[in-house]
Amino acid sequence: MILAPGLNLSIQYLQTLPPDWPGGFWWHWLLFTIIIFVFFLSLVMGFIWFERRGMARMQARLGPNRVGPFGLLQPVADAIKVLLKEDIVPSKADKVVHWLAPVVAFAPVLMIFAVVPFQDGALLADLNIGILYVVAIGSVSTVGIFMAGWGSSNKYSLLGAMREVAAVVSYEIPLVIAVVGVVLITGSLSMNNIVLAQKDVPFILLQPLGFLIFFLAGCAEINRSPFDLLEADSELIAGFHTEYSGMKFALFYLAEYAEALAMSAIISTLFLGGWQGPLLPPWLWLVIKIGVVFFVIVWVRTTMPRIRIDQLMAFAWKFLLPLALINLFITAIEVLVWPTALPWTIILVNIAVMAVLILLWSKLFFKLGRGRVEV
Question: Model confidence at 292, in pLDDT bands (50, 70, 90)?
Fold first, then answer.
């Protein structure tokens, strides 16, 4: 039976950390704040290099290769370049809103990592509503993007910002429903407890359809290809940040990769077992899984063409939302039938159900018009 007590293959280099480790609330807060900043900035800079280098290899190009060995220092050179650029503000822009928008877009992404466990108990705040906190905080960045579009006094910027709002409103629903399936199996909203519940099998096997829905909806929310319509250069110049330059633009650029990092961390925690794994230290397993998820995001960006805005909306409401509701209904039945532990055979059943539902619903999706504008 899955989720029953059994052998935990992960080597515990440290015991479960107490809530006030390493000695008092303030020391705990200070240490993990520093850890999160170092972890966050290191991986974001690494992701920028990895995406540019990886996409170059996939497209038979060289990519960054001049600054530092293998071009590793290219993100540092880019950071210095944007810091030296002039900060230009449109004369008719709302100066206060224009200035605050990058901060509002960037800060919530960093706050998400407060509840991401690096090991059992090794996190800034083990909230008993951790995943609810992630969903709530993750949506705040949209306010910053809308502020950027509204405060720029530019129609292209405003149109890009409205597209982001429409995408978040549409894709947040199937994303949250996909998370509910994990919560039903675990019986907890705590991110740490969700990882501990995967000691026998990761939830990607128990919730394959939920994982796929979460991944696709997450990519749409964080503006990754093929859903990157709020920055569609062929339609909107640069979208919501058309009127931004210098450090303000750098914050938006950093926020985009930070959101990809946050989504990779959440997927690793909810579906891939988080920090659990054999032989290696727990934090290293988390980094490896985050890297694998981000590689898939880059792979999709390199492979898939950008879709239209009507297709973007239709994919959320006509495809992902019905599948998310069906997946939730099936998961609820499984939990009611096996309240203490799910049998191993349910893995094969759920994978087969996912394949059948995607095949049948894709055919129905084509009949529903795939977002075709009716005139």
Answer: very high
DSSP string, 174-207: HHHHHHHHHHHHH----HHHHHHTTSSS-HHHH-
HEC string of 160-174 equals HHHHHHHHHHHHHHH
pTM, to two decimals: 0.86
- Looking at the structure of the chain, the number of domains it has is 1
- Residue 115 domain flag: yes
Round to whole Å and give the CA distance between 72 and 50: 9
Q: Please name the amino acid found at residue 66.
A: R
Tell me, yes or no, whether 11 lies in a domain.
Answer: no
Q: What is the pLDDT of residue 327?
A: 92
Range of the domain at 326: 25-367
Burial 10-21 (b: 16+ CB within 10 A, else e): beeeeeebeeeb
5: number of Cβ within 10 Å: 9
E-strand stretches of the chain? none
Whole-number Å distance between alpha carbons of 6 and 28: 31
- Reported as a single tens digit per residue, the pLDDT across 126-185 is 888 889 999 888 888 888 888 888 888 888 888 888 888 888 888 999 999 999 999 999
Q: Which among 346, 365, 317 has a CA at the least distance from the CA of 209?
A: 346
